[in-house]
Amino acid sequence: MRYLIICLLSLLSPYLALADETHIEQARQTLKNYGLSHCILAPFNEQSALRKDIALSANAYSFMGNGLHSILQDEDTLQVLHDPYKETLSYISAAYQQTPSRSKLSNEKVVFLACLKIYNSEAFNRFIKTQDAYISDCPPDFNQSKDRSLRRLLHGIGAHSAEGCGLSIFRRASCAGACR
Length: 180
Known about the structure:
Oligomer: single chain
Strand content: under 5%
Number of strands: 2
Structural class: mainly alpha
Low-confidence stretches: 11-19, 141-180
């Protein structure tokens, strides 16, 4: 029995490592998309169908949407200790002010061009990586997995639990304890 478990774990370990790396890349991409959406949205104050659509996109990438980063809070006071989404907005806002994006046709700043320059910059990628410590331990599709036997096996070896993964508003250690 012991050998069976060891063999099974050795077969699953590359899958778990790959799944973890994929989860990290997905979380980074989601946070970048959140930043891009808000970068485009921020300069425009007038209400329009386009602004509404971009706002819905931005919300979809947030913590309350499909965002994969946790907001770090003190469990007793509920004081926010670190919010990767707020940090991303601050970064985007500062970078937008410093990014030149004039067009030959206009003397005004071209919003989409500036936001794309920021989005594709190595500096923004480095910033996004600084938020890795706040990536939720639980992949978003884990609870929806159709392979229940794999879910049960992973739960049995302590990889992830099917319960508690949505509790990412708590301290990372608490979430990790609930998700493992």
